[in-house]
Amino acid sequence: MLGVRFGEDGIKGALVGRRIAIKDNIVTADQPTTASSRILEGYTSPFDATVVTQLRHAGAVISSKVSLDEFGMGSHSQTAYEGAVGSPFTRNGEALSPGGSSGGSAMAVADKSAWAALGTDTGGSVRLPAAYCGVVGFKPSYGRLSRWGVIQYANSLDTVGVLANSVADVESMYQQLDHHDARDPTSLPATVRKRMTISKIAQPAPLRVGVPLEYNISELTSAVRDTWIFTLSLLQSAGHTLVPVFLPTTRQSLSAYYVLAPAEASSNLAKYDGIRYGRRTPGNDASPAEGLPLYAKTRGEGFGEEVRRRILLGAYALSSEAIDNYFIQAQKVRRLVQRDFDRVFSTKNPLIEHAATPEADGAVGVDVLITPTAPTLPPTIAELKQQTSVESYMFDVFTVPASLAGLPAISVPIPLSAALRESIDKQDVRSVGIQILGQFGTDDVVLHAAKMIEGLCAKA
Amino acid sequence: MSVPSVRLRSLKALPALYTRPGYTTRPCYVSKWLQSRGLQVSTAPPPNAVPLRKHLKDEAKRKKADAKAGTGLRRDNAVTARLQKWELTVGIEVHAELNSACKLFSSATAASGDSTAVPNSNVAAFDAALPGAQPQFQVATLLPALRAAVALGCDIQRKSGWDRKHYFHWDQPNGYQITQYYQPFAKDGAIRLSAEDGVPEEDLLGGRSLLIGIKQIQMEQDTAKTTHHPPSSYHIDYNRSGHPLIEIITLPHIHSPQTAAAVVRKLQSVLKAVDACTTGMELGGLRADVNVSVRQRGTIGSSSYSGVAGLGQRTEIKNLSSFKAVEDAIVAERDRQISVLEAGGIIAGETRGWSLGSTETTRLRGKEGEVDYRYMPDADLPPLIIGNDLIDHLRDRLPELPDTTVERVQREYGVTEKDARTIVALDDGDRLEYMEATVELLQPRLLDVDDLKLGKLAGNWVLHELGGFLTANNLCWSDLKIYPIDLADIIAYLTRGEITSRTAKQLLEYSNDDSTSRRVGDLIYDLGLLLRPLSDDEYTELARTIMDENPGMVAAVKEKGQKGKIMWFVGQMVRRGEEGTIEPGKAKEVVERMLAE
């Protein structure tokens, strides 16, 4: 048993006494949970989320509930009703984005107020803030960690993730949470978990590392590209094989994501009407005399701008006139994204009986893919304010494909080269997030590769 | 790890709730719900619910009255002329509450029919749409749904799915209803109806029966119950929220209002027979929406639905809660549509409402006001996979369907189809059980009478004599205290010629009297009711006395030859003779002989 700890009162558990910050869209019975939304103001859940219960059983201390982009919708943690999350870094005195939506979780880990944190990752919401705050952020395969008690944003994509200062710490958290939960109907059943264990590759053989050429986009800044190349060369010198691979649907996946996630959000957020819990606009909110739909005032005032935008986008994508062109098309793209991945990984997709394989294309598969987590270093808050909402969606371009396919993905901070460090502000970030992706269910392979890269960087 | 599912009942123990000053916050559902617990939530049947028997009786009465009234005739003629020109087409959607111990997606008790349940006491986290709660499909709810689908001859789909149907209403906590829109679990069934089910002759087109296609059956969630407290308060009881329903969608194969009502009635009887549902329309367990369109006979309309093309533009009338409402609403809507079309207007595709007693449907919302339900697969719920072994198991153990029962009752007990149908339909099957028990008890009592004859005897007594007794005394079936063994004794004594039929009827009253626990045999001996044959002399003496008192009547027979008056003398003898002593046949013989002298 890895890392069993003993508390002062003799309690045994892997996480005894560890302070864990919980993203505030994961419900806790002893503290309010608002998903950083005004509409859930004052709401305390009558039950703990399963992941919280699991942490408590392992002896962990829930140290705080931390802010997020309202309901997880955002990439910079600037839309929380209680106020934006600040980054530990600045550039020439300008505040930087901490990344989002699990910005509060990444910050808690970065400033060491928590030993580790739980976040949620729907399209990159654990990996992006990890990259921007210089910590490790892991999104396991969809269905490994229970979502019971996790406030839905886009439930076919929502995944509980872990943030910590090292891959080992992430792993010890993950091991406490990686169990079937009957109350989450999307939790992977024991039979599938067993099948995935069998497909595990032998470690620590040299890895075949895939490099998706589509990720080398023009928007990639040189700091990110150089660090990516540096990481790959470290691996190559350590005896691993680099393999260029093609993931042709990468470009379309961002568009597909921004159709599917808002569509699901418009449905999942329909329950917030101010009737049973949360905030309600005083007065008659269901007055046909005023010609307004039910709850228009409560929902109009309770939700922030970005949430309202995504609900409208999603409602449109599902409307009878648009569903064929938007929602259905996006689902098809999602399948293609999954097939892209199945065609490059050596491990067969355990969820699909007749999954595509590299062998079918006359190729040899790879064990992991290595990409940047984000195309740029964190932007300043001032820069963000210049951007349109669509431009800001660009930050998710590298994280969204793994979300669409439900794959395990981790962002590891790789130190900037000495030359680069010299050229930038002392208060600026010191690392770039590099992402490692694996086939569905090969979470252990991804963690193994991450630890190895972490080790190679420490030696370098 | 097993953690008991969260019930809101236990939420009283919640820690003090966090509120931020300066804002109106709703502290929690709990306090709201606790308040509502003091409330009387109405559980009385809807005021417009009409029991089947009463409905049938009223219908017969109405038809008789219509036939009598001259104006009715004139109106009928006008209606007939219209209906010869216009053809009505109806498709029905029936929503039925499944007989289930738990809700569709939570283990909370499904106690919507339980009037004693405290409001909001059977509510799991998902039923109240608490943040972070997820649905858990309860396999047990599938069984009554499958029984219904098998009974209605549907193809059970191996794979079906769950979809969200979005609309805002306070009785819909999630903001969507989970239903089966894209992939229902059952398709392509049918239900057969005959004249005895209430289908008019002209709908049968000379055939014995009519087959109405069922497009599909889907499972879905029921809504919460709202009670209105004027002027502007609504109280919501989430006990019903998430209760499993099936929606049965018929094809637009129905062409008269009476047949439409008959379809709903028949569906209810089938659902009850296979135990898919326990409460019928009269208690709100069944609700119907009807799609109504008309077109001129011989023309082809430009609308279509459920895969049937060439129809006129349809309107939908929602939430009909009695058979009578189904029929009356269709009549009203048919007539409205014809009037609009004859005046050169066009029918708008819209949703309309109907309230009992009104003569017109009312517009609820038009197409522009129509909700776009934004159907979407529910990503939390895996597809529903139903194995053939389960279907076979249920098919083998399916309870007898009403039509089969009627056939069996005719065959085994020799009663007419009409009587068989009535016995089967009455008192939720109790009447039939009563009759079957009576026959079984009669067999050892009347060994020399064949079974068919026993069945006929018992059928006659259970249906007509007991029915007449109840009506005469203004009692209902549940007031009956006569047991099958009492009735069997009465029938046996009568059949053996040991009591008169007048005595037999009197015995019904004695047996139903609470104050006696005596068996029929004891009653007969104690009260001296046994038929005591009189001698010829005694008959003659009694007849003589009556004749002496009524010389006019004697003269009428003897001189005017009014033979019919003979029976008057027989009646007088039966009345005047001591209880249970005069046999009418013998009395007639004596009177005839004496008057012939």
TrEMBL record, chain A:
Entry EC number(s): 6.3.5.7
A Pfam family this chain is assigned to: Amidase
GO biological process: glutaminyl-tRNAGln biosynthesis via transamidation; mitochondrial translation
Enzyme class label: ligase
Self-association and partners: Subunit of the heterotrimeric GatCAB amidotransferase (AdT) complex, composed of A, B and C subunits.
Compartments where found: Mitochondrion
Domain Amidase: 11-447
Protein name as it appears in the record: Glutamyl-tRNA(Gln) amidotransferase subunit A, mitochondrial
Catalytic activity: L-glutamyl-tRNA(Gln) + L-glutamine + ATP + H2O = L-glutaminyl-tRNA(Gln) + L-glutamate + ADP + phosphate + H(+)
A single GO molecular function term of this UniProt record: glutaminyl-tRNA synthase (glutamine-hydrolyzing) activity
Biological classification of the source: Eukaryota, Fungi, Dikarya, Ascomycota, Pezizomycotina
Automatic annotation (TrEMBL), chain B:
EC number per UniProt: 6.3.5.-
Gene3D superfamilies: 1.10.10.410
InterPro entries membership: Asn/Gln-tRNA_amidoTrfase_suB/E, Asn/Gln-tRNA_Trfase_suB/E_cat, Asn/Gln_amidotransferase, Asn/Gln_tRNA_amidoTrase-B-like, GatB, GatB_Yqey_C_2, Gln-tRNA_amidoTrfase_suB_CS, Gln_synth/guanido_kin_cat_dom
Subcellular location: Mitochondrion
Catalysed reactions, semicolon-separated: L-glutamyl-tRNA(Gln) + L-glutamine + ATP + H2O = L-glutaminyl-tRNA(Gln) + L-glutamate + ADP + phosphate + H(+)
Alphabetically ordered keywords of this record: ATP-binding, Ligase, Mitochondrion, Nucleotide-binding, Protein biosynthesis
GO terms for MF: ATP binding; glutaminyl-tRNA synthase (glutamine-hydrolyzing) activity
Function of the protein: Allows the formation of correctly charged Gln-tRNA(Gln) through the transamidation of misacylated Glu-tRNA(Gln) in the mitochondria. The reaction takes place in the presence of glutamine and ATP through an activated gamma-phospho-Glu-tRNA(Gln).
Family: Belongs to the GatB/GatE family. GatB subfamily.
Protein name from the UniProt record: Glutamyl-tRNA(Gln) amidotransferase subunit B, mitochondrial
